[in-house]
Amino acid sequence: MTKQVKTEVIVKELPKTGGLETANVYIKNAVVFYAAVHDPKSKYQSTDKEFSATVFVDEEAKDKLLDEVMVNKNFAQVGVSKTAKPPRKIKYPLSSQVEEGKANYDLVDGLWGFNIAKPEFSKKGLPMSVNVIDTDGAAFTENVGNGSVVNLKLFGYKNQDGQLTVTLDTVQVVEHVAYESKTSDGVVQDDVLGSYAVKKVETKQEAVQEVAQSKAVEPEDPLDLDIPFAPIGLQEGKFFLHMI
Fold first, then answer.
1. What is the DSSP code string of 81-133?
2. Calpha distance 17→9 (Å, rounded)
3. Residue 13 domain-assigned?
4. pLDDT reported for residue 236
5. What pTM was estimated for this model as a whole?
6. Three-class SS state of 65
C-alpha cells in the first residue's frame, strides 16, 4: 500500500556566519528509507562514515526545494527516473520492475527521492551526531525502519553557485515503522521448526578482541562533550556552532 503524504517545506533564515548565508530547512511529513541516524555507516567506496537517509517527498515539495529553496540535491521519481551512469536503471524501482524478492519502493510510488547525509566528523575532526526525537521532543532510540514518516531539520549554507548545500541535523519520528534486520538478531523464522536462535561460532580474532577489551581502560567518550540539541522549533541558531 502506497504511503499518502502531504509534504511541507519551511525555511528559517539564520544570521550570516563568516560571510555565509545560512538557513534551517524543515521538511515535514517525509518518508525515509535506509535511515542510519543513530550510528554512521561507511560511505560508498570509502573508509569514511556518515549519517544518512533516503528521503521521499511529494512533487510540490520537490519543486519548492529545487526552484525556491534551491537545494544542491538531485531528485529521482520512484519507478520512473533512471541513474545517470551506465548501465542506466531505475533508481527507485517498483516491484514490477525488479525480480521477485528484490528491494522495491512500492510504498512510496509517485514520490520523489533524494539522499541526505551528515559526516561522522567535522572538518576540524570533531565528532558529529544527528538528533533523533519523537513528537514530544524526547529522545527516540529505536532504529528507524523503511517507510517511517518523519519531520526533518536540515542545516544549509549557500555555495558560490547560489545553491543551498544542506546536511542532516534532526529527525523527528512521526509514524514509526519498526526496523527489520535479516541478520542482526540471529533469529530464524522457519515454517517447519518455528522460530529459533542461530548459534554463532566465535572466531579466534573475536576471542582475542574480547580479551583485549576486557583489559582495556574505557576512554572518555568525546560525544559527552558535545553540545545538546533542543527539539525542533526550540532552537534556531545554537546548532550551527555544533556543525562548525
1. -B-SSSSP-BSS--GGGS-TTS---GGGTT-EEEEEEEESB-TTS-B---EEE
2. 23
3. yes
4. 47
5. 0.75
6. helix
Report pLDDT for 175: 97
- Coil, strand or helix: which one is 52? strand
Beta-carbon contacts of 62 under 8 Å, excluding residues fewer than 6 positions away, are: 75, 112
- What CATH number does the domain containing 36 carry? 2.40.50
Answer yes or no: is 210 within a domain: no
- Nearest CA to 150 out of 123, 125, 132, 166 is that of 132
The three-class DSSP label of residue 243 is helix
Which pLDDT score, from 0 to 100, does residue 207 have? 47
Residue span of the structural domain in which 20 resides: 8-182+219-243
Number of domains in the chain: 1
Residue 45, class by beta-carbon neighbours within 10 Å (0-12 exposed, 13-18 middle, 19+ buried)? exposed
Q: Among 243, 170, 225, which Cα is nearest to 17's?
A: 243
For the residues of 2-48, what is the DSSP string, one character each?
------EEEEEEEEEETTEEEEEEEEEEEEEEEEEEEEEEEPTTSS-
